């Protein structure tokens, strides 16, 4: 298979002024939003523990009998075959830069990409070890509406 590779100057509008980056055009791209949606769908199914759902089997069914067909779903189904509990995986999703670059470019172009932007925000949220904003939000909700505050 021959894949064309182009070099671009990232983060600049001047020739040879930015970071050189290799770009490969793809026939299909599964953005972070698709990964986020698949992960959330499986989390929702896992939450119905009273149904004793086999998530690996559901992944296999989706691979072959659904409009949700993709290589990403193949990888997801394979991962769930190996371990449906994911207990040894920390709930942290690193930010490798692609979503950030996409969001910045969208802002520069004045384009609204709410789903991709939210998937990036979810990556950041997963990395928040302190949770200060959520703690403060909990206190604010308690102050204005009497909502419960979970204490340590």
In a nutshell, what does this entry contain?
The protein has 152 residues and is mostly helical. Helices cover 51% and strands 7% of the residues.
Q: What fraction of residues sit in β-strands?
A: 5-15%
Structural class: mainly alpha
Number of helical elements: 6
> What is the mean pLDDT?
78
> End-to-end span in angstroms?
56 Å
Query: What's the overall geometry?
Result: flat
- Biggest β-sheet, characterized? 2 strands, antiparallel
Protein described:
The chain has 152 residues and is mainly α. Among the domains are: 32-82; 99-152, no CATH class. Helix content is 51%, strand content 7%. The protein has helices at 32-46, 55-65, 71-82, 98-109, 114-126, 132-145; strands at 6-10, 19-23. A hairpin with an 8-residue loop joins strand 1 (6-10) and strand 2 (19-23). Helix 2 runs antiparallel to helix 3. The radius of gyration is 20 Å and the shape is flat.
Features:
6 helices; 152 residues
Reconstruct the topology from this structure.
Elements: E1 6-10, E2 19-23, H1 32-46, H2 55-65, H3 71-82, H4 98-109, H5 114-126, H6 132-145
Antiparallel strand pairs: 1-2
Helix pairs in contact: 1-5, 2-3, 4-5
